[in-house]
Amino acid sequence: MNTITRTPLPLPTERDKAFLLQGKIHGSLHTRITIEREIFRRTCAALLAAGYELRVYEGGDWACERTTDPVLLENSMMSTDEDWLKVYKPGQHISIGWVYFVYGNTGWDVINDQTTNLEEALKPVAEYIDQIAEWF
């Protein structure tokens, strides 16, 4: 008998639970939002591990200053339907790339677009997304 082994769906962290309760988000959306937040966290972790500084842009305003603090980045996300995670090399003023997040679809497809120069750094995130997408 062949058994298919799937990557388990992420469980909400304490910060996820606080975010869900704060926004009074319907229980049917918890899994999708938890997946979106996990992919955002993994994206930040991969880019920070590659030595970049990050900043969240909401489409009209900056949600945070450039930072290497993953908690600040996570707390700055999801105040609108979409975020741009801008990527900087330390000491440079111009963004060298971005990742565009669109919330509210299936969850695993939260990364809508990205600059191609970040593909290598984001390879572990892409592999995780492929595994999570098998659930849907």
Task: Explain how this protein is built.
The protein has 136 residues and is α+β, with helices and mostly antiparallel strands. The chain has one domain (18-133). The chain is 34% helix and 16% strand. The protein is built from 4 helices and 4 strands. It has helices at residues 14-22, 30-49, 70-75, 123-133, and strands at residues 53-57, 82-88, 97-102, 111-114. The protein has a 4-stranded antiparallel sheet with strand order 1-2-3-4, with helices on one face. Strand 3 (97-102) and strand 4 (111-114) form a beta hairpin. Helix 2 (30-49) runs antiparallel to helix 4 (123-133). The radius of gyration is 15 Å and the shape is globular. The model has no long low-confidence stretch (mean pLDDT 90).
How would you summarize the topology of this molecule?
Elements: H1 14-22, H2 30-49, E1 53-57, H3 70-75, E2 82-88, E3 97-102, E4 111-114, H4 123-133
Helix pairs in contact: 2-4
Helix content: 25-40%
The CA-CA distance between the termini, in Å, is 23 Å
Query: Beta-strand level of the residues, as a percent range?
Result: 15-25%
Shape: globular
Structural class: alpha+beta
Radius of gyration over all CA atoms, rounded = 15 Å
Question: Biggest β-sheet: count, sense, barrel?
Answer: 4 strands, antiparallel
